[in-house]
């Protein structure tokens, strides 16, 4: 079970299971909600999250887990929105 650990989400029985899964709550300036973390873990991706900020632009995307690379990735929803324009 994944629980809120303050600045990140992690396994609830870490001491017993040695589960090393963690996921930061803040990703490119956006807070990932517990609802979206549950959706990610059960469905494989989150809802579209608006307002991620890279160096040059703001964009909307779903987050999904790449099982082959064991990392979180972005599924960009539509065209990125330019920052400040």
Automatic annotation (TrEMBL):
| Record protein name field | DNA topoisomerase III
Q: Which GO terms describe its molecular function?
A: isomerase activity
Keywords on record: Isomerase
Species of origin reads Mesobacillus boroniphilus JCM 21738
Matching entries from InterPro entries are given as: Toprim_C_rpt
Pfam short name (any one)? Toprim_Crpt
Tree of life domain:
Bacteria
């Amino acid at each position: 079970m994944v629980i809120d650990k303050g600045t990140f989400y992690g396994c609830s029985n870490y001491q017993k299971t040695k589960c090393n899964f963690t996921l930061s709550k803040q990703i490119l300036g956006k807070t990932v909600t517990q609802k979206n973390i549950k959706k990610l873990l059960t469905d494989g991706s989150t809802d579209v999250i608006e307002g991620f900020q890279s160096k040059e632009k703001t964009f909307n995307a779903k987050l999904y887990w790449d099982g082959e690379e064991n990392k979180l990735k972005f599924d960009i929803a539509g065209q990125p929105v330019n920052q400040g324009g």
